[in-house]
TrEMBL record:
<feature type="region of interest" description="Disordered">
    <location>
        <begin position="1"/>
        <end position="20"/>
    </location>
</feature>
<dbReference type="InterPro" id="IPR018392">
    <property type="entry name" value="LysM"/>
</dbReference>
<protein>
    <submittedName>
        <fullName>Cell division suppressor protein YneA</fullName>
    </submittedName>
</protein>
<keyword id="KW-0812">Transmembrane</keyword>
<feature type="compositionally biased region" description="Low complexity">
    <location>
        <begin position="8"/>
        <end position="20"/>
    </location>
</feature>
<feature type="domain" description="LysM">
    <location>
        <begin position="74"/>
        <end position="120"/>
    </location>
</feature>
<dbReference type="Pfam" id="PF01476">
    <property type="entry name" value="LysM"/>
</dbReference>
<keyword id="KW-0132">Cell division</keyword>
<keyword id="KW-1133">Transmembrane helix</keyword>
<feature type="transmembrane region" description="Helical">
    <location>
        <begin position="30"/>
        <end position="52"/>
    </location>
</feature>
<dbReference type="GO" id="GO:0051301">
    <property type="term" value="P:cell division"/>
</dbReference>
<dbReference type="InterPro" id="IPR036779">
    <property type="entry name" value="LysM_dom_sf"/>
</dbReference>
<keyword id="KW-0131">Cell cycle</keyword>
<keyword id="KW-0472">Membrane</keyword>
């Protein structure tokens, strides 16, 4: 295969065709060109606002757990259920037992005599 040059053609575009019309955006094109960056900037601002205010919001709602707890010494034969019934009689004992286990980082409900436990008290 060989290339043959034709004598009347040049590599530069012809000026007789006229200049191309300027680029015109449709309504949809303008919406994409303007709307997409605006939406991305808005999303970025919302994300940054949420990121920087989340620790402040979470930190402002903390309560002192010692203000609503009492440290008790477990006696022989006592159970978490009995402690819950004695110190918080107005609440469901199951919920109070769960609170006692959470306050004291207990994995099981059996406790030895003489153990010091934090127990929630009625408010």
């Amino acid at each position: 295969m060989s290339l043959a040059l034709q004598p009347g053609l040049s590599a530069t575009p012809s000026s007789t065709a006229g200049s191309a019309a300027p680029l015109r955006l449709t309504r949809r094109g303008r919406l994409v060109l303007v709307g997409l960056p605006v939406m991305l900037a808005t999303a970025a601002l919302i994300f940054l606002a949420a990121f920087f205010t989340a620790p402040a919001i979470a930190g402002s709602e903390t309560q002192d757990p010692a203000a609503h707890t009492l440290q008790v010494s477990v006696e022989t034969g006592e159970s978490l259920w009995g402690l819950a019934d004695r110190y918080v009689p107005d609440r469901d004992p199951r919920a109070v037992v769960a609170d006692i286990m959470e306050l004291n980082n207990l994995q099981e409900a059996t406790i030895p005599a003489g153990a010091q436990l934090y127990v929630p008290v009625s408010r």
